[in-house]
Records
---
Amino acid sequence: TPPDPGRPVRFAFGSCTFPAPPHASFDAMARLAPDFFVHLGDLGYPHSHRHAAATASPDAYEDRWARLLAQPSFRRLQGVAPIVLAADDHDLGKNNCWARTCLPWPQAAFATIHANPDRSFCSFRWGDVELFLLDVRRSSDDPDLPDGSSKSRLGAEQKRWLLRGMAASDAGLLVVASPSPLRTRVTEDPSWEAAFAHERQELLASFLDRPQRVVIVSGDAHGTR
């Protein structure tokens, strides 16, 4: 049950979970008992494992996810916190995929393991926090196109939804959860900073214009290493 207004909210987030245990981060988060946990994509890397080419099917992906989610460390976290799952490129069948290269059948398979709303982006309110979960793959333009005002990682519909939703929110803290980071030193990935710089600046300007504090959480680039 979400807390009453004015009460503290604690949440955890992570991404890029390889299937083999141990998963010390899940154990640590379970001990902290957050109000909710957001996984920002690349859950078990079904696209990247050594038998991926031979097992490219919904059943194989679902099996990969189910085995990871059933591991004791994840079950302990699931026992204390609601779980929100976002899909990123390795959940969608192709590294660094965008609208035309994300495969359709992994999207349908991923939909069987989460309880998010039907569309790939969504928001929810938890006490004084409102979180906006982005999809940075399935509506994205080709990262290799020249940058400019018409190039988008979110697509027009999702960007309108995000900016209007943030402007309408009266939550004390707005959290933007993006599977891909808005800033990273990992240059080999087509990041917001490298491939969608114009849209990145547009978003950051809008975030700074909000009366509330905006926190961005992200995954994908492994930059914290």
Note: The mean pLDDT is 90.
---
Amino acid sequence: MIVVLLGPPGCGKGTQGERLAAALKVPKISTGDVIRAAIKAGTPLGLKAKSYYDRGDLVPDALIMDIIRETLAAPEQARGAILDGVVRTVPQAEGLAEVLTGLGRSLGLVLMFQIADEQLVGRLSSRVVCEACQSPFSGRNPGELHAECLKEPKGHLVRRKDDEPDAIRNRLTVYHAQTAPVLAWYRANKGPLTEIDALGTMDDVTGRMMRAAGLARSA
């Protein structure tokens, strides 16, 4: 099954995507992951992407979709994949549809994680991340900043500048401007779109996601 994850920054879709990938026994991949992997492997597409990186330019959608096509054609993705951050704009939604058609595959599910902006502002502004592995931690008290992450290498916990309330609201404004047309596109094209309430405990949201995916909660 090919599943696309959509949702605002801080909604928890990354963590939920990992759980869904484990339940379906398929990889979870993101645009950044596949581009970095292609660059590291020195593939022709990776070298093209690296040329944009080296100039500080954005990698064009067409090249991103070529890399996604190459990734999904690999044996490791034969059973499917969870795509996180692959679709952020209408051209990317259209590009992914073309990629899947060319591979003779179909989109199984689009999961849109929904949560109110002010809930996200509160959640993200209390978040800290490990400066080494970037693992997020929420609900930390200010005095716990600079504590050590439990994962190796044990970096210090820091608050990112883009997790300040004003920066979060700006990010959400950009997100809504990009994503509203994507949702409209999937609805117009009768895409398999399901909205998930992302408010509640992690397990609550997982339960909703698993039911939307047609999986038992115990999965």
Note: The chain has eight helices and eight strands.
